[in-house]
Design a protein that fits this description.
Blueprint: E1 5-7, H1 16-23, H2 32-40, E2 44-46, E3 53-64, E4 74-85, H3 108-126, H4 130-143, H5 148-160, H6 164-177, H7 182-194, H8 198-211, H9 216-228, H10 232-245, H11 250-262, H12 266-270
Parallel strand pairs: 3-4
Antiparallel strand pairs: 1-2
Helix pairs in contact: 1-2, 3-4, 4-5, 5-6, 5-7, 6-7, 7-8, 8-9, 9-10, 9-11, 10-11
Length: 271
């Protein structure tokens, strides 16, 4: 089951003018249907929700693992200062990294309970049951209020409910623990963008890209934000950067097509 969460944005305003142009051009009437498809497919992406299961008593080292299907991570031997390599089935497939537990040390039994609670929350999240998912994330946070993964996941669930202000609060809490938490930076950027502040949203995408210049989600979402600002030429540059990483990235293809259509290049937009 995929742990990627997608927030479907309204059809981009910057492409609506393209439809009027088509209606004024009889030779292009046949393109209307395809252009409408482009309109309906503009989406923004949030990174994955994360799960973690840890055991053992060592204090440092690296642990890798996880399921590409469900994003779970099993770590043995080290937990206090380890690197978690997560394998969620997500766009780009980037790993989450950082301490398995944050703040004060959390005992092995409590850590296991947190993992179980977050896993249950993630299962409900994937079913679209965000209220119940949040209940389990809250239970995990009741054990460790500084668990950045539970904080991020709760922000992600709130985002999918359309509660962008509350989502930002939890992304901020995760970022207070780890300022370089790339997924939380992207999540905050998308939330801010959905509130209409595209300039500030771009600032958070840039922070994420400073950590990982090849994060296709951040590249695509920056392209969307630029397009909403009317900067279609630069938006296309960022869609192209995302497509250079994944030529089949549908969101970037749709975004580029919409931007090309707004620039009047309907042939390339349809291609």
């Amino acid at each position: 089951m995929s742990l990627l969460s997608s927030a479907v944005a309204p059809a981009p305003r910057y492409f609506l003018g393209a439809i009027d142009n088509l209606l004024d051009c009889p030779g292009l009437i046949s393109l209307i249907g395809i252009s409408a498809v482009l309109l309906s497919l503009c989406v923004l992406s949030l990174p994955s929700v994360y799960a973690q299961t840890q055991s053992g008593s060592a204090t440092s080292g690296e642990a890798k693992g996880g399921s590409a299907t469900n994003g779970g991570v099993t770590i043995t031997g080290t937990c206090n200062q380890c690197t978690i390599t997560n394998a969620p089935q997500a766009t780009g497939g980037e790993a989450a990294s950082g301490a398995a537990t944050s703040g004060n040390a959390v005992g092995q039994e409590a850590t296991s309970s947190i993992s179980t609670l977050v896993d249950k929350g993630n299962a409900l999240f994937n079913q679209g049951n965000y209220d119940q998912a949040i209940t389990y994330y809250d239970k995990a946070l009741g054990i460790d209020p500084n668990n950045k993964y539970a904080l991020y996941n709760k922000g992600n669930a709130l985002f999918n409910q359309g509660n962008y202000d509350q989502a930002i609060t939890y992304f901020d809490k995760a970022l207070a623990i780890d300022p370089n938490y790339k997924e939380a930076l992207i999540g905050k950027g998308i939330s801010i963008g959905n509130l209409g502040n595209y300039t500030q949203a771009i600032q958070y995408y840039d922070k994420a890209l400073a950590i990982d210049p090849k994060d296709e989600t951040a590249l695509n979402n920056k392209g969307d934000a630029l397009a909403y600002q009317g900067d279609y030429t630069q938006a296309i540059q960022y869609f192209d950067k995302a497509l250079a990483i994944d030529p089949n990235f549908k969101k970037a293809l749709n975004g580029k097509g919409a931007a090309l259509g707004e620039l009047g290049d309907y042939t390339q937009a349809i291609l």
